[in-house]
Amino acid sequence: MPPSFVTSSTVPTNGDLNPYGVVFVPDGFPGYGTIAAGDLLVSNFNNSQSAGNLQGKGTTIVKIVPRGNPVTFFQGPARLGLSTALGVLRAGFVLVGNVPTVNGTSPTAGSLLVINRSGRQIAEWMPQAAKINGPWDLTIFDEGDHAKVFVSNVLDGTVTRLDVSIDDDGVHLNRATRIASDYAFRPDPSALVLGPTGLAYDPQRDVLYVASTADNAIFAVSGAGSSHHEGGKGVLIYADNARLHGPLGMALGPNGHLFAANGDAINPDPKHPSEIIEFTPQGRFVARFSIDPAVDGPFGIAFGQPKHEFVRFAAVDDNTNTVTVWHLPFENAGQ
Q: Between the chain's N and C termini, which has fewer beta carbons within 10 Å?
């Protein structure tokens, strides 16, 4: 019997389009806010159709309502362009990156925003202090009162680790370290820009996996959580032109496998459009499935925390401005 799923709109009342980032609010997230543990959040990269549907102009993070219209959790100023760099700290804060553009083209360095659980921005980390340049995706290793935030920089082909501390006053940036570099990056007429995107961190091995879109490959960076120096790409673990088609968002599944969303801007295959692929950290292909019959659909993907032998898996489809959540048996998650 195939797993059950629910597809929901990501378009808020202001009409923002092109969903990019997606994340589940983790267990332990405090109450008395406008989001709660188990909620699903999505960030939008484009503005509304009436405003031109311009890339790098979306300003909203929405809370998904299954089969209904989403609720706006956060709406920032028009200069934004919220990217796939969306994460939640269980102490009660949301982090989101932005890559603004000039009239839908010419992306700029952007910043990282810190938002409280009521949807109010409380801090902004700028490029120089945070060593970021087009924060395109992120992943978090959350240890409660402190965390490591890994950020992929699409405008210079690097990855940065942010060491942060968290208390009742907010999230404090203590140190920014460029830990990886030399990933291919370049402008693209349809995708706007191509560069390192999806990140997945294995804290037991202290390895960060990087989906390098323009390289059409997945790399492993050892010592990512402890390094104090900028390195290169890391070790190539997966390069498969038959199944990789410009990997974007990436996640480490509860079964220990990696999952990547093919965006089709690189090495497209019309016979296999908009696929999510599953493979092991050793580079062995496991499975693939399409979320849209047209190309260019998927971007961000995320797993929820396993419960009662099931796990939720979410993938955005920016062709249809929707997000789908599958309810998967834990022992077969992603297979």
A: N
Tell me: domain 4-332, CATH 3.30.1330.60, correct?
Answer: no
Is residue 60 classed exposed, middle or buried when 0-12, 13-18 and 19+ CB atoms within 10 A define those classes?
buried
Q: Measured over all CA atoms, what is the biggest interatomic distance in the chain, rounded to whole angstroms?
A: 51
Structure tokens at 318: 């920016």
Q: What is the distance between the alpha carbons of residues 280 and 275, in angstroms, rounded to a whole number?
A: 16
Alpha helices in 116-244 (DSSP H): 127-130
DSSP, collapsed to helix, strand or coil, labels residue 312 as strand
For residue 49 the two structure tokens come to 């159709």
**Residue bearing tokens 């790409």:** 233
Amino acid (one-letter) located at 210: V
Question: pLDDT digit string (tens) for 255-292?
Answer: 999 999 999 999 999 999 999 999 999 999 999 999 99
Q: What is the pTM of this model?
A: 0.97
Distance CA 94, CA 115 (A): 5
For residue 63, give the amino acid letter.
K
- CB of 188 closer than 8 Å to CB of 265: yes
Cβ proximity of 285 and 243 under 8 Å: yes
